[in-house]
Amino acid sequence: MTTRSRRGPNRRSAARLLAIAAAALVLSAGTRADEPKPDKSGYSIFNPTPTDLMRDFNTDRPTKANVPWTVDAGHYLMETDVAVYGYTHGKSPPINQRNWLVLDPTFKVGLTDRVEFDLLLTGLYSNTQTHDRTTGVTRTLDGFGDTTLRTKINLWGNEGGASALTVIPLLKLPTNSGGLGNNAVEGGVISSLAIAAPYDVTIFVAPEFDALRNAGDNGRHGHYSQLINVNRLIAEKLTAYVEFYADEGTDRRERNFYTVDVAVSWIFLPGLQLDVGANIGVSDAAPALQAYFGFAARF
Questions:
Q1: How many CB atoms lie within 10 A of CB 270?
Q2: What pLDDT is recorded for position 255?
Q3: Measured by CB atoms within 10 angstroms of the end CB, which terminus of the chain is less buried, N or C?
Q4: H/E element holding 17?
Q5: Neighbours of 14 (CB within 10 A)
Q6: Global confidence as pTM
Q7: Is-contact 271 298, C-beta < 8 A?
Q8: What local confidence, expressed as pLDDT, does residue 35 receive?
Q9: Is 108 in contact with 77 (CB distance < 8 Å)?
Q10: What per-residue confidence (pLDDT) applies to 94?
Q11: Is residue 101 within 8 Å of 123, Cβ to Cβ?
């Protein structure tokens, strides 16, 4: 339920990928670090975490993955795509679609040491042009997107270690204009697991379940997505990402899609990240290409 094709695997696909996550977690549990950590439980939005006790700068950019680490209590983080370009060449139905999106900021605040609140604006401006190759008709939609409220709750690993886990309940509100949404209130939950792998590789596994409105009526259906993200620091302050994403649901009027995503992020200044990436469709229903660049800043 986010801008860059984070819609939601079927039960079988989700079970397979969750089994992989569980196995990796069992393997990592035996090596989880037991180093003493500072007690930061007393910090909150009203009593901010001191700068010298703040965690490393981690963001939910640039790929679809959500990291399991929260914003430090009393501190703020803003993340956004500056621009996103998408292109789809569909076979069934036979359409060409181009989409431009400008700015889709996410504002985050650390409420406690383990809980943050997020406000996501899904596109301050979006323009979608769809051309039907059979009829020759072209339709254009433009406007702004929906708003999502969510809470990220870290269960363990916020201060480092071999793994970290979070749950993220979310609620989408229909604030779109120009016909860019389905005008329904929808909700779901994401779980994000980070695993420290050999050779300084980090793996994210993040299943999501949403209750969405049906495409053809006012009924509801379960929607599932799953991703596996592999990333590594390849140079000082430069991280590369490869991600495999599956999006499937139980509404037969919606088509499943799959992408392979690549991205690079650069910590340009302390507390400022720049990034660029692309999502490549590997199924007919997926956008053939989504290219984007953006940034994140911590305050």
A1: 8
A2: 81
A3: C
A4: helix 11-29
A5: 19
A6: 0.86
A7: yes
A8: 61
A9: yes
A10: 86
A11: yes
